[in-house]
């Protein structure tokens, strides 16, 4: 039995690690489209086509449910996929839903009118494609009013993380936080709107300050997936656990092992 986890690169491993801890009896097939990463600087059509190809590969591997552990794919491709591409016997979920639920303290199925929430000033850190899509702001507006969202496109951070250059990644994070704070000096909450960014959570928190609540998606997605599978046990597919990449398996395995501090062996997708 397996559930698919997809990301353009290695950031989705933060989600995978969380869901494995939350659901130790479920097997997962992880697919990193490393050959085409990063997605955050691509056009919406490119992101859509690449995401569909990757999700189809996971369907072929026996996964009836796929989690897009990639904010860029969730923002730029998921709605379009749901409107006409996903087969009726399959399901694809994004990473925005659990985050919006946590921020607004209301379930996704709650269709009551938007209402005020405690958090008024939100700093969103994301890839250029996610920022330009305004998907986070759109989904939040359906459920909350009176929330000021300032988005900061964090160019270069994903590339630095994928290259293993954490010194550069830290410098870029500090620079992007400084740029955000010039526009919003006192945010109440910081949203790590890319699954790579939890790897830099300490740097984000230090730059934002201790009074800013930092929302990271990995654990939220783990809890949400556990709840979903309890309600839809038929969506646990027939595949077996695997790590797949469109890039160089050895290079990707080395980076993954470095990130998670345990050996991860990728195979060619």
Keywords:
2 domains, 12 strands, 269 residues, four-stranded parallel beta sheet, Rossmann fold, alpha/beta, six-stranded parallel beta sheet
Describe the structure.
This protein is α/β, with parallel strands linked by helices and 269 residues long. It has 2 domains: 2-95 and 218-268, Rossmann fold (3-Layer(aba) Sandwich), CATH 3.40.50; 97-217, 3-Layer(aba) Sandwich (Rossmann fold), CATH 3.40.50. 45% of the residues lie in helices and 18% in strands. It is built from 12 helices and 12 strands. The chain has a 6-stranded parallel β-sheet with strand order 4-3-1-2-11-12, sandwiched between helices. The chain has a 4-stranded parallel β-sheet with strand order 8-6-9-10. It has a two-stranded parallel sheet with strand order 5-7. Helix 1 packs across helix 11. The radius of gyration is 18 Å and the shape is globular. It starts with a strand and ends with a strand. 48% of the residues are buried.
TL;DR?
The chain is of the alpha/beta class.
Tally of contiguous helical segments: 12
Beta-strand percent range: 15-25%
The low-pLDDT segments are none
CATH class identity of the largest domain: Alpha Beta
Report the order of strands and helices: EHEHEHHEHEEHHEEHHEHEHEHE
Gross morphology is globular
User: How many β-strands, per DSSP?
Assistant: 12
- Summarize the amount of helix as a percent range: 40-55%
Annotated CATH architecture of the largest domain: 3-Layer(aba) Sandwich
- What is the CATH topology classification name of the largest domain? Rossmann fold
What is the number of independent domains?
Answer: 2
End-to-end distance: 19 Å
The averaged pLDDT comes out at 91
Reading side by side through the largest sheet, how are the strands ordered?
A: 4-3-1-2-11-12
CA-atom Rg in angstroms: 18 Å
- Given helix and strand content, the structural type is alpha/beta
């Amino acid at each position: 039995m397996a559930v698919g986890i997809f990301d353009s690169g290695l950031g989705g491993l933060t989600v995978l690690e969380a869901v494995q801890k939350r659901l130790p009896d479920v097997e997962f097939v992880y697919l990193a489209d490393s050959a085409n990463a990063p997605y955050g600087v691509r056009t919406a059509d490119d992101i859509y086509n690449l995401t569909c190809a990757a999700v189809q590969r996971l369907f072929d591997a026996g996964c009836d449910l796929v989690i897009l552990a990639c904010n860029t794919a969730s923002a730029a491709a998921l709605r379009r996929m749901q409107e006409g591409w996903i087969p009726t016997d399959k399901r694809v979920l994004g990473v925005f839903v659990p985050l919006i639920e946590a921020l607004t303290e209301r379930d996704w199925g709650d269709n009551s009118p938007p209402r005020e929430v405690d958090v008024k000033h939100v700093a969103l850190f994301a890839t250029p494609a996610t920022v330009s899509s305004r998907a986070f702001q759109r989904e939040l507006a359906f459920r909350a009013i009176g929330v000021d969202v300032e988005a900061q496109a964090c160019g270069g951070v994903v590339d630095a993380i994928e290259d293993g250059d954490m010194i550069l990644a830290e410098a870029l994070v500090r620079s992007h936080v400084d740029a955000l704070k010039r526009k919003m000096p006192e945010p109440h909450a910081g949203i790590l709107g890319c699954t790579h960014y939890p790897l830099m959570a300490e740097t984000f928190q230090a730059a934002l300050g201790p009074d800013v609540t930092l929302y990271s998606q990995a654990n939220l997605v783990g809890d949400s997936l556990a709840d979903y599978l309890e309600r839809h046990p038929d969506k646990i597919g027939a595949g077996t656990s695997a790590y797949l990449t469109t890039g160089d398996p050895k290079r990707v395995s080395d980076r993954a092992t470095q990130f998670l501090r345990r050996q991860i062996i990728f195979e060619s997708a």
